[in-house]
Amino acid sequence: MQLSVFLCLVLQSAEPVRVLVTGAAGQIAYSLLFGIAKGDVFGKDQPITLILLDITPMLPVLDGVVMELQDCALPLLREVIPTDKEEVAFKDLDAAILVGSMPRREGMERKDLLKANVAIFKSQGAALEKYAKKTVKVLVVGNPANTNCLIAAKSAPSIPKENFSCLTRLDHNRARSQVAMRCGVPATQVKNVIIWGNHSSTQYPDVHHCKVNMAGSDLACFDVVKDDDWLKGAFISTVQQRGAAVIAARKLSSAMSAAKAICDHMRDIWSGTPEGEFVSMGVYSSSNSYGVAEDLIYSFPVHIKDKQWKIVDGLAINDFSRGKMDATAAELVEERDTAVTFLSA
In Å, how far from its chain's centre is CA 253? Predict the structure, then answer.
């Protein structure tokens, strides 16, 4: 049997994974959907059913997105389902990528933003609980991502908390790229940067455990860069403020880079991380070894194997890092405590 015929038969017999993207008419989703549909995330031989959820006024835009996906003639894309109904969107999901959220508007108090998003993610968490597979992997992208993820997880009590994560891979990729540019190497030669904490301006991009491959040898980032002031100052603030810098330049928030980070995050969940490497994810903080408060979604370095993440233990934390890790944790505790009051309302 010819290989091409064999592969065709395999594709036809494989069960499609059901993948939901919310906020599907938005600009991040527009950059994201093609990568998912062509096999960059769940595998080059894995058929896909895409479910696209957005609010009712956006359905005409979703129809246009569906037409474009159809016009790509992608061999893995079995079906595209646009909807504004949670009972349709969340049914039998294998993966949920929750991009849509209430953006902060001019003059809006942070507590009002939290209240609006608690309502959204409480509803979506309840829909996951009622309709999705209990094995569903949930990635929250919509900001404030950490706390939105926590609310969704609390609203789906029968789905393991370990199945929920939030996106800090964009920050991770930003940090990796900044180091690579400083060292004059491709980003693939930089590994094990860490984003600790919140996906906000308090996040802590940490390179104390980062390695840079120079002429075939993995060297400590501090030894290669040879500029401690930059690594403890401008590097950190550049990564923390990168989203705002993109908005100032584009007049729009990050979309292409956010979509790439989503693909990286979900691909690593599905396929695992390379031996000796770790990535950053916002995950449930229970039983961590770094003194971070319980009951938070906090970004840690993780290894992933068999679709299960594990926080990397035993990394040395100096006083400089401890102060920054504690500061971002304090912000998350405050966000959580505010959000939980709305959850029970």
Answer: 16
